[in-house]
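R.M. (postdoc): so does anyone remember the format we settled on? I'll just put the structure tokens first.
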């Protein structure tokens, strides 16, 4: 994914995980206009068109939501359209009522910036979501990504619906991966990975070192204290959602991150899942 966009000609940097087509879609937490939490799993067995935008206070973003609302009326019931921004749910509710937006789900990322971080569309300097469109199939595989280069412009709707046709014709895609998916709850007595399993997963990681066969660790260095603290904040959102938490040592602009699973007294898939997500933040 691209890490930069422009807005009215000015360059802005995007932060968050760098995701790719034909990979498992990350989970996320957003909120409805009635403050109900929604996650990717709430739209299971649906084809998801997810579009993000800066703010409903701009005419371009208003047009974007209206256009997808019109397009949604022509779609089958097994396709859902989610429109996500960091506008407060109350503002979204007023807009939807005023404009009769009834065929898409307008959702807010105001609380945790979860979608922005997990999908790499957070504009760092603005703390808003950039303009983008994702298509996620019924098996929760990312099938399409459109990042709008100039965020004062609208998405290419024709390209979205052309790719949607391909997904409709093949709504479930099985991918072969040697890497585990999302973290799973651990209980006391869960067995750790064996040496061969640890070795296989560690080969897929860059810069992570093995400690006594039971932990993995990696050092990160940033420009200054604020940048290092900001990176911790990004990790915290993902770690809390995965319910798996690293040990972080913080020294001015340097971080040391160590992962292991206490319940297993060693390494499990969860450690490598979170390590990969952390790496995606800086890729």
């Amino acid at each position: 994914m691209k890490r930069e966009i422009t807005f009215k000609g000015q360059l802005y940097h995007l932060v968050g995980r760098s995701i790719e087509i034909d990979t498992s879609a990350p989970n996320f937490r957003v909120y409805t206009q009635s403050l109900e939490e929604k996650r990717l799993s709430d739209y299971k067995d649906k084809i998801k068109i997810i579009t993000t935008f800066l703010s409903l206070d701009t005419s371009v973003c208003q047009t974007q939501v209206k256009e997808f609302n019109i397009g949604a009326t022509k779609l089958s019931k097994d396709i859902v359209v989610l429109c996500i921004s960091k506008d407060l749910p109350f503002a979204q509710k007023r807009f939807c009522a005023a404009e009769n937006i009834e065929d898409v789900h307008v959702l807010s990322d105001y609380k945790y910036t979860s979608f922005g971080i997990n999908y790499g569309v957070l504009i760092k300097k603005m703390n808003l979501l950039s303009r983008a469109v994702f298509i996620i199939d019924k098996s929760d595989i990312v099938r399409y990504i459109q990042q709008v280069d100039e965020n004062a412009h609208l998405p290419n709707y024709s390209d979205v619906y052309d790719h949607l046709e391909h997904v409709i014709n093949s709504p479930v895609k099985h991918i072969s991966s040697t890497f585990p998916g999302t973290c799973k709850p651990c209980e006391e007595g869960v067995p750790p990975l064996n040496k061969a399993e640890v070795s296989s997963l560690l080969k897929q990681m860059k810069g992570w070192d093995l400690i006594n066969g039971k932990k993995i660790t990696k050092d990160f260095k940033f420009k200054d204290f604020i940048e290092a603290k900001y990176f911790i904040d990004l990790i915290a959102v993902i770690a809390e959602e995965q319910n798996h938490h690293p040990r972080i040592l913080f020294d001015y602009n340097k971080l040391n991150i160590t992962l292991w699973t206490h319940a297993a007294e060693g390494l499990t898939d969860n450690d490598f899942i979170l390590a990969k997500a952390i790496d995606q933040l800086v890729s």
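R.M.: ...and that's the designed sequence above, right after the tokens. Also worth knowing: Residues 76 and 168 are 10 Å apart (CA to CA). The two ends are 9 Å apart (CA to CA).
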